[in-house]
Design a protein that fits this description.
By secondary structure, this protein is α/β, with parallel strands linked by helices. The chain contains 13 helices and 12 strands. It has a 6-stranded parallel sheet with strand order 2-1-3-4-5-11, sandwiched between helices. Keywords: DNA-binding, Transcription, Transcription regulation.
Length: 350
């Protein structure tokens, strides 16, 4: 396959190679119409930047480090797809690390990434991470960081997240409007940003509909494979027992579905179930799982764009802030209204 260069694009459009180079980098010095023409020409010629050649022009490595808790998690694999698409188009290598939910491994990942002279870091914090001193050390070395999904506000860097509060509010309100009144919430470690935001959305929906927040209906888990069953047993032993479960992760949603089946509880007749996931097989489960979908790929794309802008434009990049990507509520059979619930839901909305 023929390899085209910046010179070929410049010749095709009858402009200088420096203009083409700046347009491909998204420079503010190039007008939008010229950028559009350059990008269209680059696509037509199947132009791809050469990161090695680019790195020889300066001290930049043309590589970014990406640290995620677990690649096997569908959310993170999709986020990585988004990150790699942006990085590839802008001439960057991606070096991927996984912390396996360990603070110690996350710290080692950061040190390894820095030893490889990455130009910047994209990080989603492990479930054990409550101290971000290791990331402050990176910032002190003037290496930019963008956090995504699991973030730390005290670090003062750009963060790209799903609308966790809004998604949790929508999920809980949907259960309430379906006639449910005793809604259990299974979540993960309480210090994580996603835990706090989703719990806040859950509480706000209860408050809006005049339902009391009951601490006994909340269970905090880790990422153990067999922990959901005992939590379900504890909750179903309450009097009155829950009539719905809202889980804050895909692993908890699947674990809860399995535990409820094993205990011969019919879904949604005995109890409704809704997740907060990016699970790609939610519609294939039995029953199909109602869920709040996180836009994982878009989160990865936006995070990569913001990081590369910080690397290339430094002080001219967009100011530090939180970018919140909307979630989507998808209703399936696991929260289908039973006849009893229809009447209860109608009474609740009067």
């Amino acid at each position: 396959m023929e390899t085209f260069t910046i010179k070929d694009i410049a010749r095709e459009l009858n402009i200088s190679t420096s203009t083409v180079s700046r347009a491909l980098r998204g420079s503010y010095e190039i007008n939008p119409e010229t950028k559009r023409l350059v990008m269209e020409c680059a696509e037509r010629l199947n132009y791809r930047p050469n990161p090695i050649a680019l790195s020889l022009k300066g001290s930049a490595s043309r590589a970014i480090g990406v640290i995620v808790p677990q690649i096997a998690n569908y959310f993170f694999s999709q986020a990585i797809n988004g990150i790699e698409a942006i990085a590839y188009n802008r001439g960057y290598h991606v070096i991927i690390f996984q912390s396996q939910e360990s603070y110690e491994r996350e710290t080692a990942n950061v040190h390894q990434a820095m030893s490889r002279k990455v130009d910047g870091l994209l990080i989603s914090l492990s479930s054990e991470t409550s101290d971000v001193a290791h990331l402050r050390d990176v910032l002190d070395k003037h290496v930019p960081i963008v956090l995504f999904d699991r973030v730390a506000a005290e670090l003062g860097v750009t963060q790209v997240v799903a609308d966790n509060f809004g998604g949790a509010f929508a999920a809980t309100e949907h259960l309430i409007q379906s006639g449910r009144r005793r809604i259990a919430h299974l979540t993960i470690q309480p210090w994580l940003s996603i835990t706090q935001e989703r719990l806040a959305g859950y509480r706000a929906a209860l408050e809006k509909h005049g339902l009391e927040y009951d601490e006994t209906l909340i269970r905090y888990g880790t990422f153990g494979p067999d922990e959901v069953g005992p939590m379900v047993d504890e909750l179903m032993a309450l009097d009155p027992m829950p009539d719905a479960f809202f889980t804050a992760s895909d692993r908890l949603a699947v674990g809860c579905l399995k535990a409820l089946h094993q205990r011969n509880l019919a879904i949604p007749d005995d109890v409704s179930l809704i997740g907060f996931t990016n699970l790609n097989v939610a519609d294939l489960l039995s029953p199909s799982l109602s869920t709040v979908v996180q836009p994982a790929q878009e989160i990865g794309q936006v995070a990569a764009e913001r990081l590369i802008d910080l690397i290339e434009f430094k002080h001219r990049a967009k100011p530090v802030g939180t970018v919140k990507i909307p979630t989507e509520l998808i209703v399936r059979d696991s929260t289908r209204l039973t006849e009893h619930a229809k009447h209860a839901g109608a009474a609740a909305t009067k």
